[in-house]
Amino acid sequence: MRSILFAVTLATAPIAALAETPCGGAFSSFVNDLKAEAVADGISSETADRFFAGVRQDPAVLRADRKQGVFQIPFVDFSRRLISNDRIARGRANGRAYDAIFDRIEATYGVSRGVLLAFWAFETDYGSFQGDFNTADALVTLSHDCRRPELFRPQVFAALELFAKGEFDPRRTTGAWAGEIGMVQMLPRDILENGVDGDGDGKVSLKTSAPDALMSGGKMLKSLGWRAGEPWIAEVDVPADFDWSLTGLETTKPTSEWRALGVSPRNGPLAGGLEASLLIPQGRKGPAFIAYPNFRVYFDWNQSFTYVMTAAYFATRLEGAKVYDAGNPDTGLDGDQMKALQTKLQAAGYDVGDIDGILGARSRAAVRAEQARLGMAVDGWPTPELLGKL
Questions:
Q1: Whole-structure pTM value
Q2: In 10 A of CB 288, how many CB atoms?
Q3: Domain 2-66+130-223 has CATH 1.10.260.40
Q4: pLDDT digits (tens, 9 = 90+) for 115-127
Q5: Where does the record place the Transglycosylase SLT domain (predicted)?
Q6: Architecture of the CATH domain 233-318
């Protein structure tokens, strides 16, 4: 799952970065340039030759990269698709099976077990399917492709470093189409920086060792800023007459202020002493969540708002939270309608990124601005009514 959603990570990358990263041209010449750069950076020519020998351009990787339909699914539908009773049961069973490992992760990195269990479930269905794309081919193919070379080119050299250490086989290592490897889908650079030998066998084996994968994931989350012992998200009830313009990640308030505004938790008390945001992924009539600082770390793992909301919520379910109240959200827009809305917003001067039918952060911000201008409830949820008024 991460590889599908990973494709949007550099959506907000500076244009200069795109222009400065070599890409395109004859594939063989591109590979030769990669080898020359590796040697210039201190890799032996023999090692570089062995790593790149047989590397090929993979059209299936490019086809997978162009598929974006999953991003158009709203939170309620997306979360129901990914979270099943079976996945919850297997997640809790894995929590018991690896109880000692999760205790170590919580003690060492401060990451709660539900968080890693949710990633493990969504990324590879608890390790059962880790992807069958050749990783070296995928990374070089996406580096050669000029859509986001600045994202993938550094990962090629990270994989080469792993190869030089005897920890990567360029012809046999497989994973997701975007180059992630192992049970929690980590990129080569992540593995270099955060790989942990969790089972004590002297190796970091993210594909075959759950302790290694989980400990590595915990270390990575800590390196991204995870705050030990703090929550990440919790479902809340919000008064019907609430000022919806206060919702969204752009606004943070102490939990005491949210309580004073009538926001009340559905699963235990609001955490005291923390800043938080109020999130309504499908508008004021849908589910509502309070998001704490740790929630923002999720976006360093993945840039999709819907995925992040679902993974964070699933983590709370695995730790005993109730099923969220889906409410009765207003009808949203299908993919074509969303593209039409983005086209209108772009024509009005908003930066919505690509016209892709995806309600990303920039599209959501533009929707909120237009809702305010039109005197509508400012909840960031685009509806046919809004489309019609534009």
A1: 0.91
A2: 23
A3: no
A4: 999 999 999 999 9
A5: 27-315
A6: Orthogonal Bundle (1.10)
